[in-house]
Amino acid sequence: MSTQPEVDYADEEPSEQAIHDYLASHPDFFEDHAALLNSLHLPHASGGAVSLVERQVSILRQKDLKLEKQLRDLIDVARANDLLAAKIHELTLQLLAAADLKSTIIALEVGMRRGFGADHAVLVIFGDPESFADIDAGRFLRVIDRNSAALGPFKTFLGGSSARCGQIRDAQRDFLFQEDAEEVGSAALVPLADDSEIGFLAIGSADADRFHPGMSIDFLTRLGDLVAGALKRY
Questions:
Q1: Domain range spanning residue 200?
Q2: Is residue 105 domain-resident?
Q3: Cα dihedral 77, 83, 88, 89 sign
Q4: Roughly what angle, to the nearest 10 degrees, separates helices 218-232 and 101-110?
Q5: What pLDDT sits at residue 108?
Q6: For the domain that residue 203 is a member of, what is the CATH number?
Q7: What pLDDT is attached to residue 7?
Q8: How many domains does the chain have?
Q9: Is 19 contained in some domain?
Q10: Is 91 a member of any domain?
Q11: What pTM was computed for the model?
């Protein structure tokens, strides 16, 4: 009759998984074995080895740098938002001070050019061009019948209710910016009232990345609401 030899499990080395599981369930293990913690060495990315404590310090330092960058980014965004809020406030005061439609449009043109530093801006109003014959706003103002075939390239945009940002189609760019079209790398189209009832505001930039589809449109939406409210008074 044969018998199986007894195995002394005490002589077996624990598996990596067993060590992992043990340390995971005993997070205070190294608090009671500080000397062991200092004696453990791990390979460093730059070569050689460092103690586990040094590695932890390095990881914490990297996390600290990452958090510091995130904080700087948040501060930059907050400052940019504060600046935009100040510009919106200033434009609001200028539009409130305007006594009629003509002065309102001129105040808007000056605000876009000086206050917001827009490379190019065009205000498209739906209506009878003859009704605006006394308003000299240069190429900033474009009055056109909403059913005009010239607005065909804007059909999708006019059917929506939110601002659009990015590189616009050649037909749209040519219509809006005419001889300056080649200078426009990106643009924002801002509806004025629901379904662009009044018209829309187009802001063009020479920077192809200034306006892009992934950017927040909160500021542009507020700008559209402000301009629409000012124009509705007349």
A1: 118-232
A2: no
A3: positive
A4: 160
A5: 95
A6: 3.30.450.40
A7: 45
A8: 1
A9: no
A10: no
A11: 0.69
- Give the Cα separation of 82 and 229 in Å (integer): 22
User: H-helix or E-strand containing 70?
Assistant: helix 52-97
Alpha carbon 176 to its chain's center: 24
3-class secondary-structure state, position 220: helix
Q: Which pLDDT does position 23 carry in this prediction?
A: 78
Q: What pLDDT does residue 225 have?
A: 95
Total residue length of the chain: 234
Among the listed residues 181, 165, 177, 171, the one whose alpha carbon sits nearest the alpha carbon of residue 122: 177
CB 206 within 8 A of CB 215: no
Enumerate residues 6+ apart whose C-beta is below 8 A from 190: 163, 200, 201, 202, 203, 220, 221, 223, 224, 227
Separation of alpha carbons 166 and 168, rounded Å: 6
> Residue 177 and residue 184: Cα distance in Å, rounded?
8
- pLDDT score for 74: 83
Q: Are 82 and 76 in contact (CB under 8 A)?
A: no
Provide DSSP, 133-150.
TT---GGGEEEE-TT-GG
Intervals of the chain under pLDDT 50: 1-2, 4-7, 9
Nearest-CA neighbor of 176 among 188, 165, 164, 166?
A: 188
Cβ burial of 92 (10 Å; 0-12, 13-18, 19+) is middle
Helix, strand or coil, per DSSP, at residue 197: coil
Q: What is the pLDDT of residue 42?
A: 58
Is residue 56 a part of any domain in this protein?
A: no
pLDDT tens digits for range 42-81: 565 555 555 566 666 776 777 778 888 888 878 877 887 7
